[in-house]
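Below is a concrete protein record.
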Amino acid sequence: MGGGVKIAATLTVNGTAYAVDLEPGASLLDAVRDAVGLTGSKEGCDDSECGACMMLLDGRPVNSCSYLALQAERSEITTVEGLAAGGALSPLQAAFLEHGGVQCGFCTPGMLISATALLAENPAPSEEDVRIALSGNLCRCTGYDGIVKAVLAVGRR
């Protein structure tokens, strides 16, 4: 974030309220990474095309690179860091590792967020449901098969 007028705000991220000073045009991604200090979400394209920056906003996946941080002030923001509980991987995170859904890892935070939203809405998705839910997330390494298998495995539990 640059050096301009700042607005005091409170962002609730992963259940914790953070007092932050934000420029009016700051993206949610920049606010969470820079002001809050959680760097799991990545900036890939800065144009809502790749999904690497995906966060949950009140349970819905959003591209945080194009969402204004100030618009999220009264919402619950969940980042990839918020998926693990007490230092233990979530079942979905563990399944990504088990099924080869992680290679370089750059897309993984966004994939996990999108898959988490899908499973919250549809606990037993079909393969087509998974592929549609992940269609806003680009991966250059895995070929998607391991990621889809991981989501389906958790959906069957």
The chain is about 30% helix and 15% strand.
